[in-house]
Amino acid sequence: MEFYLIEETFAYRCYYLTGTTKGNKWINLNVPNPKWTGLMWNTITPDDNDLTHYHQQNPTSFII
């Protein structure tokens, strides 16, 4: 399991990647009631990687 946190001026979200298409999730932390939502892909591109902070544990307070 891998968590990638993106903190930018207009984007504050986290991706949870399992390595398979099923089970991947993401959360937008800039909305009033954030919820984990299914994600249809399972990779972070090199461009995205420059914007993310890797975490082994869930860096948010929201339970998956």
Average pLDDT rating: 86
Radius of gyration: 11 Å
Order of strands across the biggest sheet? 4-3-2-1-5
Largest sheet entry = 5 strands, antiparallel
Number of helices: 1
Q: Provide the helix percentage.
A: under 10%
Structural class: mainly beta
Following the backbone from N to C, one meets helices and strands in this order, namely: EEEEHE
What's the number of extended β-strand segments? Answer: 5
Poorly predicted tracts of residues: none
> What is the count of structural domains?
1
Measure the end-to-end span: 12 Å
Shape: globular
Question: What portion of the residues fall into strands of 2 or more residues?
Answer: 25-35%
Question: What secondary-structure arrangement, pairings included, does this model have?
Answer:
Elements: E1 2-7, E2 12-17, E3 25-28, E4 37-38, H1 46-49, E5 52-55
Antiparallel strand pairs: 1-2, 1-5, 2-3, 3-4
Task: Describe the 3D structure.
The chain is mainly beta. It has one domain. Helices cover 6% and strands 34% of the residues. The protein has one helix spanning 46-49, and strands at residues 2-7, 12-17, 25-28, 37-38, 52-55. The longest helix has 4 residues, at 46-49. It starts with a strand and ends in a 9-residue tail after the last strand. 5% of the residues are buried. The model has no long low-confidence stretch (mean pLDDT 86).
